[in-house]
Amino acid sequence: MSAKNTEKNLVGQAIFKQILKFIPRNKFDLLVSKHKSDRYYKTFDSWTHLTTMLFGIFSRCDSMGEICDGMQAMAGKLNHLRMEKSPAKSTAGDGLRGRDNEFFKDVYFMLLTHFKETLSVSRIDNVSFSKLFIFDSSTIRLFSDIMKGVGRNPKNEGKKKGGLKVHMMIDAHSDTPEFVKISEAKLHDKNFLQYLNLAAHSMIVFDRAYNHYLQFARWTAQQVNFVCRLKKNAVYQVQEVLFQQDLLNDE
Which residues belong to any copy of the DUF4372 domain (predicted)? Predict the structure, then answer.
C-alpha cells in the first residue's frame, strides 16, 4: 500500500473510538437479536460490519479494498474498537451482499430516537407547522449499467452508464432523514410519494417533479398539507384567498 493511501485511510483512531461510543451497545445488541443478523457469520458480525463501513466513510475510501487495507494498517489497535482483526475483502463483500439492510435501517432509527432530544430544533418557533418535511431526490451516475440510468444511449461513448437515484425526506427542524429509498435513475420521482407515511396536519414541501394529483387527493382527505409548484399546463380554480401578514403570493 502506497504512503499516499496509508495517510488517506488512517482516520484518527482515538476520535473514531469516541464516535463509536455514542452508539448504545445494549440497544444495538437488541436489534442484532431481533434481526438475527449475526446468524451464519463467524467473524464479520454486525458490529464489525458497522464499524468497517463507518471507517470507510470517515476515511473517504473509494473501494472495499481501500477500507480493508486502511483497517489492516491499524492492526493492534482494533481491539479498542471491539474488533479482533481487520476483515478480509472477500469476507466484507459477502457481508455486504448477505446481511439484510433492514437491520441497519432499524439501527439508524434507534439512534435517531435515542438522540432526538439533543438534535437542533431552534427553528421550530419560527414556523406554523411543528411537523415540516422536505422531500427531494439526487441522481448518482454509475460506471456500469447495473441500474438503469436516464437519457438515450450515447453515440460516441459506447455503452450507456447506469445510474441510481436517492429519494430522501428530511425533518426540516432537526435536519435528519426520515425516509430514504434508492431506485434506478430512470424511475419517475412521483412514484415514490406513495411510500411516505405522514401524520395528519403535517406539512411536506417538494418540487414539480413530484406532481401527482391522485396522491394530492389522498393527502387532502388525510389532512396532510403539501407545497408543490404547479405544472405550466395545469388547469385550476382559486377557491379561497387567505390573507396573512408577511405572506407572499406565489401564484
Answer: 12-81
